[in-house]
Amino acid sequence: MVPPPARERFDAARLINISNGLTAARVLLVPYFAYLLISGRGKAALLVFTVCGVTDVLDGVLARWLRQRTLAGTLLDPIADKLLMATAFIVLAYVHIVPLRLAIMVISRDIFILVGSFLYLLLLDASDIRPTGLSKANTVIQILTVIYFLAVAAFPAEATALGTGKGTFPDRAVTLVCAATTVASGLQYMYIGIRKLSDA
């Protein structure tokens, strides 16, 4: 058997670990992000959230470049993403930056999807669970919503000068769009789940 080239051995040994390490680092940064937000250090919290976003992109790029994904990375990456977003909305609601009802919507949708996916795997023994286009759009909107509110908290004077901030039209518009896509995405998953169970 011909051994793989040196570069492939190096990639498999090192870069896959780096990719998973970036995901693990994102998980470890979540409590620090929450601490910064609760302590009123908005700029630092925005920076940490941005770093988490960069690591999310980097670990995906590394995994694709290596043309290999590990089981740990496959499981850990979505967990890290959900943990970061859930923490962001919970803490933003706790410090009264985002409406509590929006945080409840986001967390309820995630719980509903997790429970539904588990039941789907358990009852149908299937593994063809994929995010829908609406779900992907909602994820992007949720990320932009968090960035918006973090930026408003980090730069209050600039936000006021631009006519944004608590109670303003941009605030209400961002909240409404995020809430609408979150509910719509949750209802779509419910419809898909019921249809698949009915066809089984």
Task: Explain what the structure shows.
The protein is mainly alpha-helical and 200 residues long. It has 2 domains: 1-95, no CATH class; 98-200, no CATH class. The chain is 83% helix and 0% strand. The chain contains 7 helices and no strands. The protein is globular and about 55 Å long. The N and C termini lie far apart (45 Å).
TL;DR of this structure?
The protein is mainly α and 200 residues long.
Q: Major β-sheet, in short?
A: none
- Please bin the fraction of helical residues: over 70%
Uncertain segments are 1-15
Total helical segments: 7
Mean pLDDT: 83
Shape label? globular
Structural class: mainly alpha
How much of the sequence is in beta strands? under 5%
Rg over CA atoms, rounded to whole Å, is: 19 Å
**Total separate domains:** 2
Distance between the termini: 45 Å
| DSSP strand count | 0
Spell out the key features of this protein:
200 residues; mainly alpha; 2 domains; 7 helices; 0% strand; disordered N terminus
List the helices and strands and how they pair.
Layout: H1 6-38, H2 42-66, H3 71-94, H4 100-124, H5 133-154, H6 156-161, H7 169-199
Helix pairs in contact: 1-2, 1-3, 2-5, 3-4, 3-5, 4-7, 5-7
